[in-house]
Amino acid sequence: MFLEPERDQSSRELSGKAQPFPVPERIPLFPLPNLVFFPKTYLPLHVFEPRYRQMVADAAAGGQCIGMALLKEGWEEQYDGNPPIFSIGCVGRLASVQALPDGRSNILLQGLERYEIHEEFYEKSYREARVALKPRAFAVLASLKATWFALADLRNFRMLFLGLLFAGVMG
Predict the structure, then answer these.
(1) 120: Cβ–Cβ under 8 A, 6 or more apart, which residues?
(2) Would you give the DSSP letter of residue 32?
(3) d(Cα 83, Cα 63) in Å, to the nearest integer?
(4) Lowest mean per-residue pLDDT among 11-20, 99-108, 129-138, 154-163
(5) Strand-pair partners of 138
(6) How far apart are CA 43 and CA 161, in angstroms?
(7) DSSP strand E in 1-160: where?
(8) Is 86 strand, coil or helix?
(9) By the 8 A CB rule, do 62 and 87 touch?
(10) Whose CB has fewer CB within 10 Å in the chain, the N or C terminal residue?
(11) Which CA distances in Å does 78 have to 37, 84, 106, 116, 135?
(12) Given a cut of 90, is residue 150 above it in pLDDT?
């Protein structure tokens, strides 16, 4: 796993607004044991199982996204089926796909956002899920901080206004 290098502001913005990579509401899931994927990181993977070969091909031809999911304890007994997974994961964008002659592939996922699974689908050889993206904790904290400062500024203005009013300057 590698941290995402910072890019200059102009490459991330268009018309003054950040343009996030569009994540489909329904994404393929790649559950693995002992692996947790995070936004703003890169994850190289070697894909060799037939069902996940098909998943990579479908993702490359479609929405370019794969959701990494962590398998729950006891997954070994049901691995060939659909063992239980945790409901929170991270969606990655296929940054690179290197197809190998024997059908396997090496891929590089770029971590985009955390997600929560709302519904799972088993129509294909691999699992898919309808997901809702979860805001990054630091984005929520930044919003709360901005609100706090706006309220503090409003309180300071109110105190200044009342002080001037009572001092007779504004009346």
Answers:
(1) 29, 82, 127, 128, 129
(2) E
(3) 25
(4) 11-20
(5) none
(6) 55
(7) 2-3, 13-14, 17-18, 26-32, 41-47, 65-70, 88-99, 105-121, 128-134
(8) coil
(9) no
(10) C
(11) 22, 8, 25, 22, 32
(12) no
Q: What is the number of helices (H) and of strands (E) in the chain?
A: 3, 9
- What the block records as the tokens of 162 is 């009342």
d(CA 66, CA 121): 14
pLDDT in tens, 44-87: 999 999 999 999 999 999 999 999 999 988 888 877 788 999 99
Residue for token digits 């559950």?
Answer: 31
Alpha helix stretches (DSSP H) within 34-136: 50-61
Our CA dihedral for 102, 49, 129, 76, rounded to 10 degrees, sits at -170
Work out the number of other CB atoms within 10 angstroms of the CB of residue 64: 18
Comparing C-alpha atoms, which of 83, 108, 104 is closest to residue 93?
A: 108
Tokens standing for residue 153: 């500024």
